Amino acid sequence: MGAEPPSTAVERTAIKKVSVRLVPFVALMFFVNYLDRTAVSFAEPNGMGEDLALTAAQFGFASGIFFLGYIVLEVPSNMALHRFGARRWLARIMVTWGIVSLLFTWVSGSSQLYALRFLLGVAEAGFFPGAILFLSQWVPARHRTKVLGLFYLAQPLTTVFGAPLAGWLIGRQGLFGLEGWRVMFLFISLPAILLGVIAWFYLIDRPADAKWLTPGERDWLTKELAAENAHKTGHEGKHARGDLKAAFGSGRVWGLALVYFGFVYGLYALAFFLPTIINGFQEQYDTSFSVMDKAWITAIPYLPAAVVLFFWTRHATRNGARTWHVAGPAVVGGISVPLALYMGSPTVTVAVITVTACSIFAALPVFWAVPSRFLTGAAAAAGIALINTAGNVAGFAASYVTGWLKDWSGDYYVPLYLVGFFMLLSAVLMIWLAARNRTAEPTPSPEHQPMESLR
Hints:
Subcellular location: Cell membrane
Membrane topology: Multi-pass membrane protein
Shape: globular
CATH topology: Growth Hormone, Chain: A
InterPro entries: MFS, MFS_dom, MFS_trans_sf
Keywords: Membrane, Transmembrane, Transmembrane helix, Transport
CATH class: Mainly Alpha
CATH architecture: Up-down Bundle
Protein name: MFS transporter
Strand content: under 5%
CATH superfamily: MFS general substrate transporter like domains
Mean pLDDT: 83
Oligomer: single chain
């Protein structure tokens, strides 16, 4: 065979180096981030709920108030990241939230729990959209779905590895004179502080400054990304105020925010209440589980979800992302959630919940490749933050409403039907947006056809 064209060889090596050098580290940051924000879901059924005398509604409020804190500083935090650079800002976020997370070790009542959860949201504000924005600034559009898929693997794997880890730490009852759930909070907060310090020295804000790329690779990435950005909202040369106006005035941004709301509603309804639901199996099916049993059962849905996520994003990368890559999983998840209510054993119930988890995690990386297709610069920072803000509203709503409806109705039937409704609504909105954009936009040339161009 003949020699590979120089541009293709440079492209391949540049993307490989970014995927190896940056994506695993940012994914590790996300792993710690998701573990810290969902740690209360492991603590509540394993002593914290009883020690702090929490009702389901109080626990749901404590889980959800985190997102109100996040919302307060979401857009300003992402704009600060755009101004000061990802290296400084993501490092600052991690150290701050690690310190707040550490304080959960000594929480003594529901009021303190509410306050710390709110402050944790304030401390974490901007991390997730900032990480998405950071990675989007390192790879061209046609590689973005694959890279974001690798990054997103951290979220389901957090529960796969984090649930057993949390169970093991909770089992260290009496260490330093602390209850087991307090020991868990103590040890899961320290990695955030450590990684934040490392991130300050390890991350690099843009390809042009990456000494681990060859000059040819740096030039190729810089020129490729600049050419893409020139055709997006918020390209260089526009005033930042105009960029923000374009992002906040975009119907596509608001439509995608509503789509994301439905997915995140389902994601956090499962994340915060699945351990409690599993704990309830003991009475419902007249059985008993140890702390580690419950941890392993909680982890079960997320391992298949990680596998499905990996292959789903690979399929979208190879064949071009289509509307059904996002809408299809939303339909499957929306139907499977209420079906779990009618299963006759813990095994079958968890199997159906696994289908829901697979559906949510399959769609999210493909979804997140969409906003950076038509936004860049300050507009991308604001637009991505706005979409993620809708997710944070859903995180609060899913947490509080699920707990409140559980107390009101006495079971999880009504709350999980509501989860199914919002996921089906996301599917409908995604199909509508794709149909609307087909009639409003010209089709890109084949050689520049982006993965995010949902059709």
